[in-house]
Amino acid sequence: MPKPLHAVTPAFRQQKEPYRWPEVEPLIYKEHDTTFRSVTRRVLFDDDCEQNNQVRYFEVAPGGWTTFEHHWHTHEVVVFRGSGTALVGSETRHVEQGDLVFVDHDEWHQFSATDGQPLGIICIVTVPRDRPVRPTAQDLEAIYASHPELKDVIRV
After folding, report:
1. Residues with catalytic roles
2. pLDDT tens digits, residue range 118-127?
C-alpha cells in the first residue's frame, strides 16, 4: 500500500480568490530584514516525507523586489503570475507567466516586479537548507567591476 505523502495536507485545495488558497496564510518574507520591498510569502506545500521539498509562492508587488542573495541550496522557479525581471548570476532576463528559472547553488539572484503589475513565482526548494548570504560592500564592488550594467539592476 502506498504511503500517504503528508498526513496533514489535504489532497485538494481550490483557489478561492485569484492566487489565494484556503489555509495558506501570507507570511513575513524575512524577519528583521529591509533588503527587499513589497514581498509576501506563502508555503503551499511543506513536505516532510521522503522528498524533503517545500513549495512556496512569493508575490512581489509592482515596483518591489526580493533580496539580492545567494545560498547553497538551489531553486526551481515557475513564473506563475505577471511579469518582471529575474537576475541570476550576472544575467538579467525579462520573465513572464509560464517561464521557468533555475537558480543554482551559490548563485546571486533577485526577482523584481518591474512591469507595473505583481510578479508571482512558485519556488521549489529542499526543506533542510542554509541561510541566505547577502553581499558585502566588497562583493558588490567586484560584481559591478565585472558587470557594470548590473549597477542599475541590483537592489540592496
Report:
1. 123
2. 999 999 988 7
Nearest to 146 by CA among 67, 90, 69, 92: 90
Cα–Cα distance, 62 to 39 (Å, whole number):
10
Helices (H), the chain: 137-146
Rounded distance between C-alpha atoms, residue 137 and residue 122, angstroms: 30
Euclidean distance between CA atoms 42 and 55, whole angstroms: 9
pLDDT in tens, 45-71: 886 566 688 899 999 999 999 999 999
Q: Are the beta carbons of 105 and 76 closer than 8 angstroms? A: no
Contact 125, 74 (CB under 8 A): yes
pLDDT tens-digit readout, 88-123: 999 999 999 999 999 999 999 999 999 999 999 999
Q: Which of 78, 86, 87 is nearest to 121 (CA)?
A: 78
User: Please, are residues 69 and 87 in contact by the beta-carbon 8 Å criterion?
Assistant: no
**Overall size of the chain counted in residues:** 156
Q: Which of 147, 28, 29, 27 is nearest to 88 (CA)?
A: 147
